[in-house]
Amino acid sequence: MERKSSSPMAPTFMVSAPGKVIVFGEHAAVYDKPAIAAAISLRSYLLVTTLSKSQRTVKLNFRDIGLDHTWKIDTLPWDVFQQPIKKKFYYSLVDSLDPELLEAIKPHAEAVSKDLPEKQRKIHIRSATAFLYLFLSLSSPESPGFIYTLRSTIPIGAGLGSSASVCVCLSAALLLQIRTLAGPHPDQPPEEAETQIERINRWAFVGELCTHGDPSGIDNTVSASGKAVVYQRNGANAPTVTPLTKFPKLPLLLIDTQHARSTATQVDKVRGLRANHEQLTESILNGIGQLTASALKLITSPGFDSRDGISRTLDHLGTLIRVNHGFLVSLGVSHPRLERIRELVDYTDIGWTKLTGAGGGGCAITLFKPDVREETVQELERDLAAEGFRIYETVLGADGVGVLWPAVFRTEGEGSEEIDQEKFENAPGAKGIEELVGVGVHENREGWKFWTRYI
Ligand SMILES: Nc1ncnc2c1ncn2[C@@H]1O[C@H](COP(=O)(O)OP(=O)(O)O)[C@@H](O)[C@H]1O
Ligand SMILES: C[C@@](O)(CCOP(=O)(O)O)CC(=O)O
C-alpha cells in the first residue's frame, strides 16, 4: 500500500477548498455591474502523501475524473522553468501563462490517459497541465516524491467553481510543502492571513489559466477567501474582486437541473436581446445592478452577520433573490427545468429561489426562510428527486481554504484517527467523503483550520 511508503519526516496532510454560487448579478456582470458570489459547503479535498527519498515520482490521483498518472520527477522540464529570466518565486505575482513554459509541459501533460476517448483525455490533459505548471513553478528538482489524491463533492462543469476549488487546493498544498505558509491559527495577525490567502489565490489563478484559458478570477478568489466576494468588470481594465468578510453562514438548498448549459450561449442570448431591444434590456440590467447594490448595502451594514442582524434582514435578502430571478427570466436565460424547480419550491413556501450562474440549465438556489419544517423540506426533496433533479443541502458563506495537518482527526474521547488513503479513495460518493473527512460535518472533530480574511 502506498501509504506505508510515506516519509516519516513529512506527515500526510489534507487541504480543502469550497465551490461557489453566484447569489446576485449574473449576466449584468458582463455589462460592468457588480455581482456577488458566495462560497458553499460543497468542497474539494486533496490528500498529500510524501514518499520515501528513494521514490523519485509524483503521482496525480484525481479519482472523480479517473485520472491516475505518475511522472518521474527527474524527467520533468526543470531547466526551462529554472532559467533566471523565467524563474518564479512563491511571492511572484503571475497573471499570465508563459508560452515557452506551456510548450515545455505539453509532452508531459499529453502523456496522460493515452487509451481514453479524446473528450475525456482533454479533461485529464487540462488538469495535468494545471498541476505541472504549478508544481514546476513552486517546487524544485530536489523535491521528494508525492502522491496527490483528490476527491470533490462539487459537481463538475455545473458552474459551481469545481476547477477553481481544485486549483486552490493544489496551490495551497504546494505552498505548504515548500513551507511558505504559516498558520492558519486564531492568533494570526490579519495582515499575515490576508497575504497568505492572496498568495494561495494568485497561484490558484495560474492553475485556472491552464484549465480555462480566460478565467475571470471570481471563482478562485471566493474559493480561497470563503464567505463571499463582490466582482465587477471595469471595461478594458482588470476586474475588481473584493472579499465580503462579514457574510454569515446561511442554509441553502442547491438544486441541479442536470441539464447541460453553455455560459457562452446564454451570454450571447442576452447580447442578442440587447441588440434588438436596447432600452428595455438596459433597464433590466440596471434593475439587476440596483438590486445587487441593495444586497451589498445590506451585507456590509453593521451587525449583518450577527444572529439578530440575520433575522432582521433575511426577508430583505430573500426578496432580492426572488426579484433577481424574475429579471433573469425576462432576459430569457431561464429554462423550463429551472422554472419547474421554482414552482415546486414556491408551493412549499420554504424559501426564495433563483437560477444561479449562466442559466439555460445548470443550478437553482433556494435560501431557506427561518423555521422551515424539516418534514416539508424532506417532502420537497423527494418530489424534486422523483423528477430527476439532484439536490444538495448546503451552506452559503462557507469557510475558504483550510488545512488538516497532519491528516489525523482527534475525536473527543475516541483518540486519534489517521485518514487512510485507501479509505479516502474509496469513500462512497459525496456523503462518504464528507463522513470521512468532511469540513463542518462532524463539528466535534478537531483539526481543520482555515485562513480567514478579517480585513
Ligand atoms: N473533482 C475534480 N477532479 C479533477 N479535476 C477537476 C475536478 N473538478 C473540476 N476539475 C477540472 O476542472 C474542469 C471543469 O471546469 P469547468 O467546466 O469550468 O467547470 P466548473 O464550472 O465546475 O469549474 C475539469 O475539466 C477538470 O479539468
Ligand atoms: C453569465 C455570467 O454573468 C456568469 C456565468 O456564470 P457560470 O459560468 O455559470 O458560473 C457570465 C460572466 O459573468 O462571465
UniProtKB/TrEMBL annotation:
GO molecular function annotations of the record: ATP binding; metal ion binding; mevalonate kinase activity
Domain GHMP kinase N-terminal: 139-223
Sequence similarity: Belongs to the GHMP kinase family. Mevalonate kinase subfamily.
A Pfam short name: GHMP_kinases_C
Subcellular location: Cytoplasm
Pathway stated in the Swiss-Prot or TrEMBL entry: Isoprenoid biosynthesis; isopentenyl diphosphate biosynthesis via mevalonate pathway; isopentenyl diphosphate from (R)-mevalonate: step 1/3
One BP term from GO: ergosterol biosynthetic process
EC number: 2.7.1.36
Sorted UniProt keywords: ATP-binding, Cytoplasm, Kinase, Lipid biosynthesis, Lipid metabolism, Magnesium, Metal-binding, Nucleotide-binding, Steroid biosynthesis, Steroid metabolism, Sterol biosynthesis, Sterol metabolism, Transferase
Main subcellular location: cytoplasm
Protein's name according to its UniProt entry: Mevalonate kinase
Domain GHMP kinase C-terminal: 313-379
Signal peptide coordinates: none
Reaction catalysed by this enzyme: (R)-mevalonate + ATP = (R)-5-phosphomevalonate + ADP + H(+)
Record-linked NCBIfam families: mevalon_kin
Protein task: Mevalonate kinase; part of the second module of ergosterol biosynthesis pathway that includes the middle steps of the pathway. The second module is carried out in the vacuole and involves the formation of farnesyl diphosphate, which is also an important intermediate in the biosynthesis of ubiquinone, dolichol, heme and prenylated proteins.
